[in-house]
Write a structure and sequence with these properties.
The structure is a single chain. The chain is mostly helical and 67 residues long. The chain has a domain of 43 residues. It contains 2 helices and no strands. It starts with 9 loop residues before the first helix and ends with a helix.
Length: 67
């Protein structure tokens, strides 16, 4: 996607970023479920940052293609 199609439009790039962030959020959540104590809190904090980035990308995607 990045090297094969250098003229990729912003909407497609934002959609890809949104999907990547959603996947990262699920992976962090699954990983946190197997931890206890401070490590769990750290991974959950990372997941929250990922979720905030996903919300920002979704908002940008809405601005590119308003409903």
């Amino acid at each position: 996607m990045f090297m094969i199609a250098p003229d990729m439009d912003s909407e497609s790039l934002l959609a890809q970023a949104c999907e990547s962030l959603a996947s990262a959020s699920v992976m962090a959540s699954d990983f946190a479920a197997n931890l206890i104590g401070p490590q769990r809190h750290t991974v959950l904090a990372i997941q929250q940052i990922i979720m905030l980035a996903e919300l920002a990308v979704n908002r940008a995607l809405d601005n590119v293609d308003p409903a």
